[in-house]
Amino acid sequence: MNRVNKGVMPTVGAYVMWGVLPIYWKFLQEIPSGQILAHRIVWSFLFILLVLKWTKQWTEFNYALRHRATRNAFMLNGFIVSANWFVYIWAVNHGYIIEASLGYYINPLVSMVLGVLVFRESLNRVQWLAVTVAAIGVLVLTFGYGSFPWIAFILASTFGFYGMVKKRRPLASTVSLGIETLAVVPVAIIFLGWQTSQGGLTMTTEPVIWVALVGTGVMTALPLLLFGYGAQHIPFTLVGFLQFIAPTLSLAIGVILYNEPFTGYHVFAFTCIWIAIFFFSWNSWIQTRKRRQLV
What are the TM regions of this chain, as residue ranges (predicted)? Predict the structure, then answer.
């Protein structure tokens, strides 16, 4: 098995897991979104500790914690990704899976804009065309449907900033997630304790619900581990193309499984996004070919 084939299946597996997450959150919809998030943080942290021990990355984890700038950056990232998780869980359990999938479709385009504004990168004409077409789709959806797609915007922007921090200070995914969850796990524990004292903590007698709550840690960390392994063995352009598996699955789940409304405005907006994605992927492929020819 060559290097590329070795990396494709883990990467696809990661995106498929992310894509079917709406089904998992729907299963837990009797639990308030804030409590699901708190459980996800706590169990993710515990699971990551086990993974760090199993992969023998304690030294790297401790070194990153001792490096003040790195520690602070990824602790900030912990709050950013927690906001992303909360909005996504809330959106799924309140009937906004389609809008959530829109957020992850436009995320690469948001990242491109952040690259220009923050890293002073330049976009070529094709990239600007992709951003413009996507913006037209979002604007038509906003004015035609009657409201700005805030959920999509928040998901795309928080994940864009989350990726921006990772670009500034690259770390192994397990190490970075360990620091990120370490930052927010005290808040999650305090929140669960406060909910208990106020009588607001949902206590279920169904063992399967408790197993699913504990499983949020695995559902958070496992796709990251698969992605971290797979992305090391395949071209980054292929990673960029495969990332659209997740929002496509989520979109299909929202429309087919949960019968969320998919209006003509949605059709137009998503068509614009898909056209933008085509330009985005095609441009990335062309740029990669040019770089290879120069080597």
Answer: 7-25, 31-52, 73-90, 102-119, 126-142, 148-165, 177-196, 208-229, 236-258, 264-282
Amino acid at 83: A
E strands, 135-179, where? none
Indicate the DSSP class of residue 13.
H
Residue 71 near residue 200 (C-beta atoms within 8 A): no
Burial class (CB in 10 A: 0-12, 13-18, 19+), 22: buried
Q: 238-271: buried (b, 16+ CB within 10 Å) or exposed (e) per residue?
A: bbbbbbbbbbebbbebbbeeeebeeeebbeebbe
* Distance in angstroms (rounded) separating the CA atoms of residues 105 and 156: 8
Residue 26, classified by CB atoms within 10 Å of its CB into exposed (0-12), middle (13-18) or buried (19+), is middle
The owner of tokens 């106020």 is 198
**pTM for this prediction:** 0.86
**Separation of alpha carbons 108 and 160, rounded Å:** 8
**CA 282/CA 289 separation, integer angstroms:** 11
DSSP letter (8 states) at residue 120? -
Confirm if 230 and 3 have CB atoms less than 8 A apart.
Answer: no
Phi, psi of 58 (to 5 degrees): -60, -40
- 73: amino acid identity, one letter: A
Residue 289 structure tokens? 């070919």
Average pLDDT score over residue span 65-73:
90
Q: Which helix (H) or strand (E) holds 159?
A: helix 150-168
pLDDT for res 82: 94
